[in-house]
Amino acid sequence: MAASPLNPKSHYHVRSNSLPSRTHPLISEVEEQLSRLRASEATSSSSSTSSISQKLGGLQDLHDHVDKLLQLPLTQQTLAQEQHAQWVEELLNGSVRLLDVCGIAKDVLLQTKECTNEIQSFMRRRRGGDAEFAREVRNYLVSRKSIKKAIHKTLKGMESKCNNKSIETVAMVNMLREVEAVTLSVFESLLSFVAGPKLPTKSSGWFLVSKLLHPKRVSCEDEETKLEKVDAALQSLLRTSKSDDLVHIENAQNLLVKLEPSIQNLEEELECLFRRLIKTRVSLLNIFNH
């Protein structure tokens, strides 16, 4: 099987050394949260905003516990050892990767909210003739196309770049790699939800491995999301180009009203998670610069 960020064990043949003491309760808690998130990603039967929101909430709890774990003197002493510097640097690079993808997810949600708010405001006013109406709908669809293109580029860029080699490491590092992997997997679900059914092409190793690792997960192709319904409704209106097509306009408006709080909720969850990712990176930097 090809290596994938979703399955860090596929990158390495790892010999895991336990931490030099009995298992701390925080370690057990992180492992339990990881297990729940992996199971949720593998068996989730929908790509709804509620399911993604729950996963983002789970990631917040996970990274809260990770940061507490990094504050333990034992953890800091273990990772601060000179021979472990390479592993800490690897974890730092991973933290940058998570912040970058989270930032992209925040941007595409903001752009999605802005273009949906604009078309919703225009349809509520119902000013102008058919030509202006068609232009505004077309502007929305162009914005959505641009957002999807950016998401597809990001998903393709999330392919693994790790080398296949044997690395002896400590259990703590393996667990933090798993945290990064499951976080990337949830970001993939979120970005795929926003983009809709046209996911990356078959050349994308990330998408192929994701499908192999999560055969039970139903992708966005299998469920029409709220965003897809809005897109379809507006595309239908564009074909008629009639500003007085009240039935279809009302349908599109109702869909936009339902979509608005969903996007807002995802934005808030992402912002909370982004702050936690920053805390984790700061903790790792403190250990690295010790």
Automatic annotation (TrEMBL):
Q: Is the keyword Coiled coil assigned to this protein?
A: yes
> GO:BP terms for this protein?
root development; shoot system development
Which residue stretches, if any, does this entry annotate as coiled coil? 220-283
Q: Which Pfam families match?
A: BPS1 (PF03087)
Keyword Coiled coil listed? The answer is: yes
**Keywords (A to Z) from UniProt:** Coiled coil
- Disordered as annotated region, ranges: 1-56
Matches recorded under InterPro entries:
BPS1_pln (IPR004320)
Highest taxon, organism lineage: Eukaryota
Q: List where Low complexity composition bias occurs.
A: 40-53
According to UniProt, the name of this protein is DUF241 domain protein
**Provenance organism:** Juglans regia (English walnut)
